[in-house]
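example protein:
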Amino acid sequence: MRMIVVSGLSGSGKSIALQTLEDVGYYCVDNLPITLLKSFASEILRHGQPPSHPTAVGIDARNFLGELDRFPSIIEELRGTGLKVEILFLQAADEVLLKRYSETRRKHPLSLDEVPLLEAIRQERQLLGCISAYADLIIDTSLTNVHELRRLLRQRLHEAPAGGISILFESFGFKKGIPADADFIFDVRCLPNPYWEPQLRSLTGLDEAVIGFLNRQPEVLRMIEDLRNFLLHWLPYFENGDRSYLTIAIGCTGGQHRSVFIAEALATYFRQSRRGTMIRHRELP
């Protein structure tokens, strides 16, 4: 029996997460006070839960006031009852949240007359710090639109096979910032760059011409081999530690050529033995 606790910063996509889970068959409850979480779980356990109807619970920042210290112990108590409890935490950069609130003209839950919006966002981030540190899966939505977020949530929470670890290989460009939700970040900017080949500049690491160019570079093939061996060695340790999700980010300058090619190569290899392997290219359309 599975329960996903959905939390995160206001404006980062919690409502979208709950709607997405509801669309794929979860029984969802929003804004449940943390003090009622154990009672809600007891009802689930007493009445049973069909495998096709797992549960998702949305907890707003206001529900944590005065209860933060109890959150880890409550979650551990729930896990001790037989429930598979996972924590999803959504976040975004301050400037992104400011822009979203200015566009929607909604009021931030912690923004009072004497508290400006930016200060409310920072207070909430600090307030929920221990939740993000305790989360099983963190998703940063700063550069993610609604449709991408829905697709990512379906892939990682619903379509991934039960048991084992769900691995996401994500390519990105350093010039647009480091993914805040990555567990590993590997920098491949030291490798030969197809960007400096005029005929390859407008292409991506998914195009045959770029793939051929990079496959001819010994340094690129060595990098892929080293990363593969590193992950083959350490992934079992993460699984033994009961990790359910792992995000591995591969970065080059623009996130268009080298990182895309290497992320694809790693994902293709690990898909042969791990059904929960996924791929995402942050900078590509």
User: Anything to note?
Assistant: The mean pLDDT is 89. Residues 166-281 form one domain.
